Amino acid sequence: MSVWDQISPNFELSFDNIDSFLAVGRPHGVLGIINTGWTDDIAVLTRPAFPGLAYCASAAWQANPVDRGAFFSDYARIVYPAAAAEVSAGLIAVGRAEVELAKSNRAHQLTQHKPDQFISKHPQVDEKRAPPLRALQEQYL
Predict the structure, then answer these.
(1) How many domains does the chain fold into?
(2) pTM for this predicted structure
């Protein structure tokens, strides 16, 4: 679950990762997936990550990918039956907002660094890392 450095979970990124891991693993006999909730920052709230943990749990046990279009309404109906419509709409809205914040923040972070700050003090690492980082710098700077 991608929530460790954000205001709220990035459900889109998390669901993409979960679906990708399972799509690659299933043909090789993978029986499940481990989903972790990292709370490195004291400000991370774990409750907003619960829908993502539920998504991962259901995705691991289903033969087919989870229907993302119905997931939040199904989740809200089970966990918050008295307010399912509101909770579902809220989760969708918060998810969209986090994606937009992540895009904006990523572009901002790249403009706040000097090009040489992306290069390590280890030449063997720089050779592998520098070209993609320079490409990112060119794209966003």
Answers:
(1) 1
(2) 0.70
